[in-house]
Design brief:
The chain is an alpha+beta fold and 360 residues long. Helices cover 35% and strands 24% of the residues. The strands form 5 sheets. The protein has a 6-stranded mixed beta sheet with strand order 4-3-2-1-5-6.
């Protein structure tokens, strides 16, 4: 049995949870090192405090056995999954399960299948059990995140080099995607917001051309292997717009305040408070409209959340973004983003690119 499986089973026992059901996705991948191709056929990793088994569509069973030695209850399209699920519950001794944890990211019909098989069980989300285990990244996971950050730096440099008056947001997004693919990474998102479009934090990149005096937000990320990248930098076309320098200074100070606050033993909300306090003091509190950051790992957004009210105590090995922003409707937006690995002595910033505005 793997060390990760032992940790999950211990967490189930401590929480008094009789059964956890995970679909193909990040939780299953973290626990087994793989997951079968997700489709409409119910595929479930079933874990109890003492045992584990897989409910597996027959067409995926042979390949799955190359990755795991767990007991496998197969079902064929002609039969459906219900009987095989019943056999799995019998084998695991969970026909009378009272507390059930369901993968929050799996298909609703998978969850309903399990709930109908255990009509008396109280359901909760598996993330409450899995997140504390997944948040601390081991050495191999940290190395993969560093590799992805190097690729993101190269893609950002390519975008900045391609900027010029008349070039469209969409054309710059294509430059980012091509640079990511050149380095073996699969693009996940390419946000380019020119001028007033930058005031929309999740702007849908379009055909807006860059114009003299535009501030441009570039927020890009991609995945190589199991992990991904995320970086935001700013540029100005010819010159920055009026008032930009003071806003950039406030956001940069907020990044620094959050980096200074991010230490083992500190609550996630304290890091958010450090960044938000700087921006509020500069008079832009109402224009900082999102949390300061999010965790990263097998998912581009996962716990810990660096936000107000978050009680998670930060620990070494946790990975998260620090990305305060100020958004001035009709004028421009400004966000600066770093991915950090929290080490014993503080945050390790993965990007090597400076955060000053690049004039192009």
């Amino acid at each position: 049995m793997s060390e990760r499986m032992e940790r999950v089973q211990a967490a189930l026992a401590a929480a008094g949870t009789d059964l956890m059901a995970l679909g193909p996705g990040p939780h299953m991948r973290w626990l087994l090192g793989f997951h079968p191709m997700p489709d409409e056929r119910p595929c479930l990793l079933l874990v109890t405090p003492a045992r584990a088994a897989l409910l597996m569509p027959a067409l995926n069973a042979a390949e799955a056995r190359q990755h795991t030695g767990l007991p496998m209850l197969e079902w064929a399209d002609t039969d459906g999954p219900q009987a095989a699920l019943g056999r799995a519950l019998d084998a695991l001794g969970t026909r009378t399960a009272r507390r059930l944890a369901l993968d929050e990211a799996m298909r609703t019909d998978f969850a309903l299948l399990v709930q109908r098989a255990l009509p008396g069980a109280e359901s909760r989300l598996a993330g409450a059990l899995m997140a504390p285990l997944r948040m601390r990244k081991d050495a191999a996971e940290q190395a993969a995140l560093r590799e992805n950050a190097v690729i993101a730096d190269a893609a950002m440099e390519a975008v900045l080099a391609a900027m010029a008056p008349g070039v469209t947001e969409a054309e710059l997004a294509q430059v980012a995607r091509a640079a990511f693919r050149e380095h073996g990474a699969q693009p996940l998102f390419t946000i380019v917001g020119a001028g007033p479009n930058g005031a929309f934090p999740h702007h849908h990149t379009g055909d807006t051309p860059l114009r003299e005096g535009d501030a441009v937000v570039v927020d890009i990320g991609a995945r190589k292997g199991a992990f991904s990248s995320d970086i935001t930098r700013m540029a100005a076309v010819g010159h920055a717009p009026e008032g930009y320098a003071a806003v950039h200074a406030a956001v940069e100070q907020a990044v620094q305040a959050a980096l200074d606050a991010a230490r083992p033993g500190v609550r996630a909300s304290q890091v958010d408070r450090a960044a938000r306090g700087v921006i509020e003091a500069a008079g832009y509190g109402a224009q900082f409209v999102h949390r300061t950051g999010h965790g990263m790992g097998l998912e581009p957004h996962e716990p810990p959340w660096i936000a107000a009210g978050e009680t998670t105590v930060l620990e070494p090995g946790m990975v998260f973004t620090i990305e305060p922003g100020i958004y001035l409707e009709g004028r421009f937006g400004l966000r600066l983003e770093e991915v950090v690995i929290l080490q014993e002595d503080g945050p390790e910033v993965l990007s090597r690119l400076p955060r000053e505005c690049r004039v192009v």
